[in-house]
Amino acid sequence: MRPFRPGWIPTLVVLALLPGLIALGCWQLRRADEKRALLDTYTERQIEAPVAAAQLRQLPDPAFYPVHLYGSFDAEHSLLLDNQMRDGKPGVELLQPFHDQASGQWLLVNRGWLPWPDRRVPVRFDTPDQPLALEALVYVAPGKTFQLHPDSTEGRWPHLLTAIDPTALWQQLGREGFAHELRLQPGPASYRLDWPVVAMGPEKHLGYAVQWFALATALLLLYLYFGWHHNDKENRHGRRHESIART
């Protein structure tokens, strides 16, 4: 039986990389499970009757609940979520504070996507000035958006942002407001509404998990192969050296 002698450098490489590859595969599997749970929650809550804004704070998990609103938009404090592509075209999503008359609560409502092909020209949008009855869905972000640097909230409105934080907005405005974004459903005041339920489906996470596990398997097989064949190379090298010495 061949002795197993992989060498210390390959051993260190495998010890450094193999746990990380396996951990990344397991993380992708967990993300796939989380996305399935989100999709199941979304499907279940689409058949729920809309709740009133006053009930939102009482819900332990408000994600994807339909909400009925009646009130007015605050046109003076709009937010533009940057880097939003639709059909290969650049644009922004328009979010505005909305005051619900029945509950007296402020909510941040996403009115949808707007094209912005030329950044030298301000984004054009209209804000209804009369009270409106609206339907919306609660959107709970899965986590904080990665940012190279924090958004600036100084200067003139509307603010151009790369991440939305309703709580920070309410603190800036000195208002009591709901902690999550609401995404408007088709109706008055809506623009283009075609958000995916999840940015990346569970099948993609499974695909990435398979890739990480395949890399881990390939690394381990290479380690075993070279460990068992290392002696053959040494023996051939030794025999060649002996034959040269004899001549």
Give a quick precis of the structure.
By secondary structure, this protein is α/β, with parallel strands linked by helices. The protein has helices spanning 8-45, 166-173, 202-246, and strands at residues 51-52, 66-73, 79-86, 89-100, 105-115, 132-139, 159-161, 177-184. The chain has a 5-stranded mixed barrel with strand order 2-4-5-8-6.
**Strand residues, percent:** 15-25%
Instruction: Give the number of helices.
Output: 3
Question: Going across the major beta sheet, what is the strand order?
Answer: 2-4-5-8-6
State the total count of DSSP E strands.
8
Overall number of structural domains = 2
Structural class, by secondary structure, is alpha/beta
Series of secondary-structure elements, N-terminal to C-terminal:
HEEEEEEEHEH
Mass-distribution shape = elongated
- Please outline the major beta sheet: 5 strands, mixed, barrel
Task: Return residue spans where pLDDT drops below 50 for at least 5 consecutive residues.
Answer: none
Mean pLDDT: 88
Walk me through this protein's architecture.
The chain is α/β, with parallel strands linked by helices and 247 residues long. The protein has 3 helices and 8 strands. Helix 1 (8-45) packs antiparallel against helix 3 (202-246). The two termini are 32 Å apart.
